Amino acid sequence: MAKQVKKAAKKTAKQAVRKPVKKAAKVATKTAKKVAKKSAPKKSARPAPKQKGRRFLIIYHAPIDALEQTSNATPEQQAEGMAMWKAWAEWVGSKLHDLGAPLVKGRRLHPDGSTAPSTKEVVGYSLLEAEDFSDVMDLLSGHPHISGWHPEATIEIHEAMMLPGM
Known about the structure:
Blueprint (H helix, E strand, L loop, with lengths): L1 H38 L14 E8 L2 H8 L3 H18 L3 E3 L8 E3 L5 E3 L4 E9 L2 H7 L14 E6 L7
Antiparallel strand pairs: 1-5, 1-6, 2-5, 3-4
């Protein structure tokens, strides 16, 4: 009987050691799977829309004092300006690939790694998709940036070269 008790005790001891080890291994495996799943690239619910036309980078230029003028505008004047931009964006519709944003504190980067303030007076950008330059000109007709808010405000247009395989 003592032998049976010792055997049972040994068996229980082995199980007591094995269970936590097995349980810890299961928990570690589950945790690793969760981490891997979270860090894996997300699959898009729908594929990105295929480009229909050519892309054009629209660069907005204005002198620095124009930005000061904008920052000193009343909330009502700012809302009026934003309403013009929203109306233009709505009118352009799906051809507006990226409305962009105002740009400030531009820097030039030189080949030696040094930097200097930009002197280009770039104040914003947008990205349009259009059939050709004529289409872009139509889309920019009545654009808020050149609506008279500042006499020196201009728009620059650059067509993006689409590289094969990129």
